Amino acid sequence: MALRLGTRGSALALWQARRVAELIRAQPGAPAVELVEIRTEGDARTDVPLWQVGGRAFFTREIDRALIAAEVDLAVHSLKDLATTLEPGLELSAVLEREDPRDALLARSVDGLAALPRGARVGTSSLRRRAFLKRARADLELEELRGNVPTRIEKLAQGKYEAIILAVAGVKRLGLERHVTARLDPQAFPPAVSQGAIGVCTRSGDAAAARWLRALNHGPTHLATAAERALLKTLEGGCQVPLGALASSSGADLELHACVCSLDGTRSLDARGTRRVRALADAIALGEEVAGQLLAQGASNIIVKERQARAVEAP
């Protein structure tokens, strides 16, 4: 019987799903793998800016529910889209090795963020990117940008923006790296939690499906993203947060840097921590520790203020 793999139908989502299928098929005795495309709320609702939508399952909910209903056997996600609290009955069974986690600037006529002219139009659908763009360049005009990666790049080429911000990982995976103008320094422009990583979920206790994912799980990436996700879970309460974070390993030590920034860029809080990590529990503890530092500095005030502002602006 074929292993049914649930995925969104975008070019990037299909690349990720095909990569998972390829790695499963490469194992001795592996079953056939069938891709099942599922349309999510995020695919259907292109009229609402992502940062005005509550929750963090905009691109995953329908796929996860198909998994719970046994309509598919595996669910493949960009890990940054996956809620920090999974639907009951699901497990994150594998995290693939991370691609470059940084954000990329794609510009039509300049070689970096600092070189953009005053008032330049920059496209992004991300609350986090809006906040850090305003922190770096308060003069920029930030405009909504929706669509898949090729569509966003085409809008840039048509002159609708002077620049756009995308994840390096998605651009590379689709073979569009030639369009990248600059990779943004993660210390000044920290990426989204788990950016660049692919997660694969199974039903809890489904050993038959999970056995094919053990070889796909990349330990260092799983630990790093577990720390980042624990940080976000402690801070967010289920909604989008203007937060950037990146965990990196050095031997057995894992370092986590995180920053919360107000949407207008005028206030930001940084925290970092290092811990010897041997298991997921250690990584989670690191994420909670760094989140505690941010909360002690007043991060909850920034988060509450931004949520209140978005509640007024939302349609």
Task: Throw out a few tags for this protein.
315 residues, alpha/beta, D-Maltodextrin-Binding Protein, domain 2, Double Stranded RNA Binding Domain, 3 domains, five-stranded mixed beta sheet, 10 helices, globular
Summarize the structure.
With 315 residues, this protein is α/β, with parallel strands linked by helices.
Folded structure, characterized:
With 315 residues, the protein is of the alpha/beta class. It has three domains: 1-96 and 197-217, D-Maltodextrin-Binding Protein, domain 2; 103-183, Periplasmic binding protein-like II (D-Maltodextrin-Binding Protein, domain 2); 218-315, Double Stranded RNA Binding Domain, CATH 3.30.160. Helix content is 34%, strand content 23%. The chain is built from ten helices and 13 strands. The strands form three sheets. Strands 2-1-3-10-4 form a five-stranded mixed sheet, sandwiched between helices. The longest helix has 18 residues, at 219-236. The mean pLDDT is 92.
